[in-house]
Amino acid sequence: MTKTKGLPRPLTHYAWLSIATAIATIGLKGVAWKMTGSVGLLSDAIESVVNLAGALMALWMLTLAALPADENHAYGHGKAEYFSSAFEGFLILLAAASIAYTAVERMLTPQPLEEIGLGLLVSTVASILNFVTARILLRAGRQHNSITLEADAHHLLTDVWTSVGVIFGVGLVYLTGWFWVDPIVALLVAANIVWTGYQLMSRSAAGLMDVSLPTEELKKIESLLAGYREQGL
């Protein structure tokens, strides 16, 4: 594994881990969709493609953020990470729109599903892989104070919950034969991930616009500074 120039080795490892996981889950979920024909599993696979794009963007932004200050960027390139977070939020919203469109189309033209049991097993393996990677990235993001790694972790966790909902819905179809459940679950999942995308984009906008701290926190800081002033510091 190549070490990216200018990027701390640990962050390089985490970024590449995310990319490898995305590639693996795309393959697994693609197989699950092909086996079953489930629109829910298709939406899950689409989300993994978004994960790959987000992971690649995260690696690029981390590389930029690690560059030292220069003549044109006196305060460094740290804010580059906020662009990655905003990009991931946008991708999540795009995936939600794609899932919703596909689900509505399937509601209008319902189709039977095949090989559901084996397809769900493959999808479950992919979800476990995503969950483990997300926990690793989340811990690393907090440890290194990296919004990019945290955004990538939350994106993967969103994918995990997406998969749980899809697996539940497709499993219900398997048990009951209610084919209309498949697109309904996909729509519910799309609505859920819209909220995650909105949160990521809002947080990025706040970071880029240098939004001030909450009033209570500002008062605490002012109180601490007043104490130092009284001591003549």
Automatic annotation (TrEMBL):
Keywords: Ion transport, Iron, Iron transport, Membrane, Transmembrane, Transmembrane helix, Transport, Zinc, Zinc transport. Gene3D superfamilies: Cation efflux protein transmembrane domain (1.20.1510.10). Its main location: membrane. It is a multi-pass membrane protein. GO terms for biological process: intracellular zinc ion homeostasis. The chain crosses the membrane at residues 12-32, 52-70, 82-104, 116-138, 159-178, 184-201. It is found in: Membrane. GO terms for molecular function: cadmium ion transmembrane transporter activity; ferrous iron transmembrane transporter activity; zinc efflux antiporter activity. One of its GO terms (cellular component) is plasma membrane. Residues 16-209 form the Cation efflux protein transmembrane domain. It comes from the Bacteria. InterPro entries: Cation_efflux, Cation_efflux_TM, Cation_efflux_TMD_sf, CDF_Transporter. NCBIfam families: CDF. Belongs to the cation diffusion facilitator (CDF) transporter (TC 2.A.4) family. FieF subfamily. This is Cation diffusion facilitator family transporter. It comes from Citrobacter portucalensis.
